[in-house]
Amino acid sequence: MGYYNSSSPQPSDEVYDLICIGFGPSSLAIAIAIQEMIPESRRPKVLFLERQQQFIWHSGMLLPGSKMQISFIKDLATLRDPRSEFTFLNYLKEKNRLLDFINLGTFLPLREEYNDYMQWCASKFDDVVSYGETVTLVEPIKANSADRVNQFLVHSKVGGIEERRLAKHVVVAVGGRPLLPKPLPSYHPRIVHSSQYSSRVPQALSDANGAYRIAVIGAGQSAAEVFSDVSAKYPNANTTLFIRGDALKPSDDSPFVNEIFNPSATDKFFRTPAEERQAQLVENRATNYSVVRLELIERIYHDLYVQRLRDPSGKSWKLNIQNHSEITGFNDISDKSVSLRMAHRDNGVDSVQTHEFDLVIVATGYARDMHKELLAPAKELLSDPEVERFPVGRDYRVQFGEGKVSADAGVYLQGCNETTHGLSDTLLSVLAVRAGEVVDSIFKPTSIGNGANGHSNGHAAKVPAKKVESYSNGNGHNGVTSNGYH
Ligand SMILES: Cc1cc2nc3c(=O)[nH]c(=O)nc-3n(C[C@H](O)[C@H](O)[C@H](O)COP(=O)(O)OP(=O)(O)OC[C@H]3O[C@@H](n4cnc5c(N)ncnc54)[C@H](O)[C@@H]3O)c2cc1C
Ligand SMILES: NC(=O)c1ccc[n+]([C@@H]2O[C@H](COP(=O)([O-])OP(=O)(O)OC[C@H]3O[C@@H](n4cnc5c(N)ncnc54)[C@H](OP(=O)(O)O)[C@@H]3O)[C@@H](O)[C@H]2O)c1
């Protein structure tokens, strides 16, 4: 299934109605919303570009036993349409596990199962996704001698080959990029960000019985999961969790607080003055950031207690938590070990210590700013190109300066709008509803097909390549090529 017949080769000068950059949960929810909100006869021409070779949800952190942090009812469809075929419950029914899942008595599936659910959804859109393709730039275009930008040229790389495609609308849904503490280099064989934990740690530490020295940095859910998992996988290793604060603290998912993740809370938050929004983000930070699910905190505490029981002297302890610690320096000893300079504060006394490790795992979170690089050529279309953020409306559409972009073209941002749309923006909480809002804003399903807004009836508009004019001029991207899917 899928909503565009892509089996035939694509003409080189076609224009997509929409290209979505990244095919994670945000874009997958959009694929589903398009399929369910727009009748087949009026389906727009859409393409999803994903740099991974297949749909996989945070593959580096699909740790055994790790659970979802959200009710399965907030899946990719239910809150928009509980009768959708893409609900988690329908997935369970199709996989013949509905009753067994009910017997588990939980709202929180394993992350492994939720990934399988999303892969099941994604498999239904194989004909409109190009995997293994990394988008590098989005360039505004004035096609057909228009007086304002009316298309976007999406540049990408697939297996070393450059691709370019035209689209009326672009959704940027690329997730976060790993954040590392300042003193650390962006790559070192002995330093691994939590997002690459599963793929890189087995290469770095090949002996499961090795007496390695391992540091885990951070006090959030990723750090706690990694600390617990790595110490179980390497029982003879000395594993230390370094945290800046006092202690691991639990995430607040209590019911009144959890209302900030209701779709209706997005409207309220968006209408709130910017200063007040910032204060609310700080007030509710412990719902999501630098916090750990209580169940896991209790498990870690239990493991530390058992060591204390067995060796009151502490000499043989394999697990340690060092609080009030921050990395201030780094030394590259060899490709087998590194040394970290750490600032400690103990009972008000500051000290600096140097520790050597065979592996440092940094679970220090993510930055959600990759759209800025991709959209750099479009920045001059903003009414104030010097602003730090790309301003977006409630419908997630970038607000370019008056008269700069045609009404039937635009760029939408997903997952990087926490400051305007609230803490749910980076999460799964509102995806089903948000995808519907984006589809509504782009395709206005009621007017599709009447030609008034420039959307096609399932066929790409043909634009002679020579009429395409690069907005940013003179950079040689005027000839547009597109080989369709790969
Ligand atoms: C380990 C972990 C567990 C989580 N668990 C939960 C949870 O239980 N509940 C919850 O609500 N939230 C959770 N989150 C938050 C998470 O952000 C969301 O679950 C969700 O992944 C957001 O979806 P997304 O599509 O916006 O971003 P992502 O899932 O990050 O997807 C972005 C996609 O874009 C692709 N991409 C990036 N750059 C490019 C490019 N230039 N060209 C092409 N493709 C590109 C990436 O490969 C990726 O597939 C978790 C986060 C992590 C790190
Ligand atoms: N099973 C799951 O569902 C699951 C698993 C993992 C992650 N997630 C989700 O993924 C998102 C990100 O979580 P995360 O744990 O990766 O990141 P996070 O919540 O942003 O936590 C980052 C941690 O790194 C610390 N840190 C940041 N910079 C540092 C520095 N320079 N030096 C030392 N410490 C530093 C922070 O310290 P401070 O506390 O001092 O600021 C914080 O404790 C969240 O939404 C989370 O819920 C979900």
Q: Which architecture of the largest domain would the CATH scheme give at its second level? A: 3-Layer(bba) Sandwich
| Shape assignment | globular
How many structural domains?
A: 2
**Strand share of the residues?**
15-25%
Structural class, by secondary structure, is: alpha/beta
The largest β sheet comes out as:
9 strands, mixed
From the 3D structure, determine the CATH topology of the largest domain: FAD/NAD(P)-binding domain
CATH class descriptor name of the largest domain: Alpha Beta
Write down the oligomeric state.
single chain
- Mean of residue pLDDT? 90
Gyration radius from CA atoms, angstroms? 24 Å
Q: Fraction of residues in helices?
A: 25-40%
Number of strands: 19
Please identify which CATH superfamily of the largest domain we are dealing with. FAD/NAD(P)-binding domain
Q: State the low-pLDDT regions, or none.
A: 1-11, 448-486
Family: Belongs to the lysine N(6)-hydroxylase/L-ornithine N(5)-oxygenase family.
EC number: 1.14.13.196
Pathway: Siderophore biosynthesis
GO molecular function, one term: oxidoreductase activity
